Amino acid sequence: MASSYGYPFEQQHCLSISQFSRPDIETLLALGEYYLDLSVQKSPDNRILTGKTLVNLFFENSTRTQKSFEIAGRRLGADVINMEVANSSVKKGETLLDTAATLNAMNPDMLVVRHGSSGAQALLAQKVSGSVINAGDGMHEHPTQALLDALTIRRHFGKDFGGLRLAICGDITHSRVARSNVQLLNMLGCEVRLVGPPTLIPSDADRWGVEVYHNMEDGLEGCDVVMMLRLQLERMSGAFVPSKREYFHFYGLDRAKLAYAKPGAMVMHPGPMNRGVEIASSIADDPDVSLITHQVESGVAMRMGILHALSEAQDGVA
Questions:
Q1: Cys bridge to 151: 32, 142, 211, 233, which one at CB 3.0-4.6 A?
Q2: Average pLDDT, the chain
Q3: Contact of 161 with 189, CB cutoff 8 Å
Q4: pTM score, whole prediction
Q5: From CA 152, how far away is CA 158, in angstroms rounded?
């Protein structure tokens, strides 16, 4: 049970934000904050995964997420194996459960999985003895991204999330990041808004505990944080938006739209960005308003915190 940095953490897996209690989240964020210091990240005193094996199994490409888990694992002393799915038996027709059985026979301690099917990791978690970490499943969730986003917000605004107003804007329908962030930010006491065209807002969004806006100016009014999402054209089978140019005109973040947010408002984006589609480069690259590079920095630290907590839970550390 990971209690080094807060409440005893007893979770075996990291599959969904909904599985965690508020104390669990506070413990994870405290660990993430601890690892923000690069000298702490690289300290030989923190090699708590020495002797353990972490396997990265990515059925979908994601350089940023995979590499941050690889760096996190190595800095904690783990043996890290990146499974090349494109060259594996999966491409030859092996099922997910066959893959799980094969991996389980190798006794990995942690399995970081990204998969195109919602619920794939939850299924794997029932079949393997190690800890499964969801690095994105279909259009369902991406819990580690939400945690690193919360850590980024905490770094800038402080530990009290209560009273913060955040707008998550763009392609909500296809975004697992949005689903995880809404759950986590609601739990932390934030006021959350979803902003986007009707075609890109899920039909059940009114049951998410958020306010829904279809106009950027209204949606951004008085917001402390504006989180832009990538337009996921690869997941769209029909015409969800008329054109990229028209989408940027109405929903792309530029200076004029950002002016409706609260003075001092900060901008986030989970990446990768479509510059000139959902966000102007002049905003993305402006350190006075953009937290995007801080999100990348927080990624390794937060994932080290998650691996740390899961490892201590495995070892029964009290």
A1: 32
A2: 91
A3: yes
A4: 0.94
A5: 10
